[in-house]
Amino acid sequence: MTVIFSGIKPSGELTLGNYLGAMAQFITYQEEEAYFCIVNQHAITVPQEAVELRLRTRSLAALYLASGLDPQKVTIFIQSEVPAHAQLAWIMMSLSQMGELERMTQYKEKAGNLHESIPAGLLMYPPFMAADILLYQADAVPVGDDQQQHLELTRTLAQRFNYRFGETFKLPVAATAKEATRVMSLQDPLKKMSKSAEDSGTILLLDSPAVVTKKIKRAVTDSENKLYYDLVNKPGISNLLSIYAAISGLSVMEIELKYQEVQGYGQFKVDLAALVVGLLAPIQAHYERIMAGSELDDILSAGAQRAALVANKNLLRAEEAMGLARHK
Ligand code: TYM
């Protein structure tokens, strides 16, 4: 059985990008030994309100379940409830070099927006992420395209550890979806659709059908009025085509063919909105049931216990290998 690990930050409302890039893949790994984490300690690398963070953590756990993850099969848990994450994170930070962390694209983007006061956690984020993954000896990590570089660093740190202290960690690979590995903003298709930019360019998983339809209708396209994929000259349409392909299961070419005779983008947008609404409606209904029910706490407590068994064992192996444990 392969070991799967992935996580999502409760740092904002989940988007269609999170779903297509990551969650939709999670569901396909339920027969493996899979761990899906709500990475709340990663969320605090930028300031969070306590009340909001608690609510979003719960809401994200409910969305994991609502999107089809079965807690009987996979382990769903909150990062801060398994202290081994922070413990191995410190080890990974000690193995990291400032230069390689400063070169991380996401760090540069986020730190660049903050001007002077940059939280140190933002820089230490990638070794923390490496710890999350290595703690479970994961083989594959389902993520969107933007996490590839962090996965490379994870492999580098695992290799570095193994080289210095003996074979301890497996080298994980990123598993990305076929389509929509990088869903772009509907308003600015050169920018990633992101939780932190809650505007009409971002479709939220909990958006109502009317809101979804309005956002898609207003999506930026181009004036050519011919539907085909061309990322350079038609980034808006190409993004919509990728979303359509990811949800419908059709290839981009099949979609282009389907709309070959249709004038303009109107009908395509109407159909795309129906696809997105059709995808989100059952998830939202399930989400409401979970949030109203009382099972969530038990699932998260059991998940943390199960995760800790594996995490503690691997943490100890690492501590023994590097001389932190009193005995070997
Ligand atoms: P986060 O919370 O930003 O995003 C969660 C997942 O959603 C994917 N994603 C996207 N995919 C396609 N298009 C988009 N516009 C889009 N936006 C986000 C991300 O690639 C990610 O897979 N560092 C991680 C969280 C993390 C983690 C881990 C992931 C912490 N530890 C260990 C895997 C394994 C992050 O910030 O994801």
UniProtKB/TrEMBL annotation:
Q: Does the keyword Electron transport apply?
A: no
Q: What is its EC class?
A: ligase
Tell me the keywords, alphabetical order.
Answer: Aminoacyl-tRNA synthetase, ATP-binding, Cytoplasm, Ligase, Nucleotide-binding, Protein biosynthesis
Q: Which reaction does it catalyse?
A: tRNA(Trp) + L-tryptophan + ATP = L-tryptophyl-tRNA(Trp) + AMP + diphosphate + H(+)
Q: Name one GO biological process term.
A: tryptophanyl-tRNA aminoacylation
Enzyme Commission no: 6.1.1.2
Place the motif 'HIGH' region on the sequence. 10-18
Binding site residues for L-tryptophan:
D132
Could you tell me which Gene3D superfamilies the record lists for this protein?
HUPs, Tyrosyl-Transfer RNA Synthetase
Compartments where found: Cytoplasm
Q: Name one GO cellular component term.
A: cytosol
Q: Name one GO molecular function term.
A: tryptophan-tRNA ligase activity
Task: State the Pfam families in the record.
Answer: tRNA-synt_1b (PF00579)
Q: Where does ATP bind?
A: K9, P10, S11, G17, N18, G144, D145, D146, V183, K192, M193, S194, K195, S196
Motif 'KMSKS' region, residue numbers: 192-196
Q: Which InterPro entries match?
A: aa-tRNA-synth_I_CS (IPR001412), aa-tRNA-synth_Ic (IPR002305), Rossmann-like_a/b/a_fold (IPR014729), Trp-tRNA-ligase (IPR002306), Trp-tRNA-ligase_bac-type (IPR024109), Trp-tRNA_synthetase (IPR050203)
Protein role: Catalyzes the attachment of tryptophan to tRNA(Trp).
Q: How does it assemble?
A: Homodimer.
Family of this protein? Belongs to the class-I aminoacyl-tRNA synthetase family.
Name assigned to this protein: Tryptophan--tRNA ligase
Lineage of the source organism? Bacteria, Bacillati, Bacillota, Bacilli, Lactobacillales
Q: Which gene encodes it?
A: trpS
